[in-house]
Amino acid sequence: MDVGVQGSLLSGVDESVPCAPAGARRTALADGAWVDVLPGWLTGADALFDRLAARVPWHAERRRMYDRVVDVPRLVAYYGESDLLPDRRLAAALSALNDQYAAPLGEPLATAGLCLYRDGRDSVAWHGDTIGRGAVADTVVAIVSLGAPRSLLLRPRRGGRSERFPLGSGDLLVMGGSCQRTWEHAVPKTTRPVGPRISVQFRPRGVR
After folding, report:
1. CA 145 → CA 47, 73, 156, distances in Å?
2. From CA 142, how far away is CA 201, in angstroms rounded?
3. 91-102 confidence digits (pLDDT tens)
């Protein structure tokens, strides 16, 4: 699978241990939701992208849409709380995120879902992570973006203006509070020529 990405020199060589993202910029949303963003949080992001693209056992999911079964427009992989993560950088990132968010949340982030967007035709539709705790209580979903820039959009479930968060390689976005049950998020398709991107989503146990 040829999904290499040409990144910056700095993001390819600096793999220092990530610090807890205490400097993230928080955006308060309606209904008790919030989003933290910290650009360039994970150093060595492009080298990590290349390793994950090569090592992760990516697979395509299929989903029923009306009267037919179609391919989900991205490749995916999932690591449960008892699974070994595919790269030590992900384990270090998970530990640093828990230093910041586990205590206020009352439980640690424990799983990692990975999505590979091969080009602008790959996407994820509007949804919230409402399986498990996210359906009834506040939770946290932390996303680390690797590779080509793409935007993540959020919109309130009850209607209203959407918010756009452009994400580059190594950027961190954390959705918290009521975000999963009162807002929806998506990565839309784009006709612009864009390279491949990997999204790593860290979640607590049972949240999907």
Report:
1. 13, 17, 23
2. 6
3. 999 999 999 999
Across the strands, what pairs with 147?
197
> How far is CA 97 from its chain centroid?
13
Those residues with Cβ within 8 angstroms of residue 16's Cβ, 6 or more apart along the chain or in another chain: 43, 44
Q: Closest Cα partner for 86 from 46, 54, 118?
A: 54
List C-alpha distances in Å: 131 to 11, 72, 136, 202. 34, 19, 9, 14
Q: How many CB atoms lie within 10 A of CB 91?
A: 13
Say how far apart CA 187 and CA 189 lie, in whole Å: 7
- Do residues 110 and 203 touch, judged by C-beta distance below 8 A? yes
In the block, tokens 């008892």 appear at: 82
pTM equals 0.91
- pLDDT confidence of 10, banded at 50, 70, 90? very low
Tokens of 47: 């080298």
Q: How far apart are CA 134 and CA 92, in angstroms?
A: 25
DSSP assignment of 110-165 equals EEEEEEEE-STT--EEEE---SGGGGTS---EEEEEEES-EEEEEEETTS---EEE
Please name the amino acid found at residue 145. S
Q: How many CB atoms lie within 10 A of CB 33?
A: 21
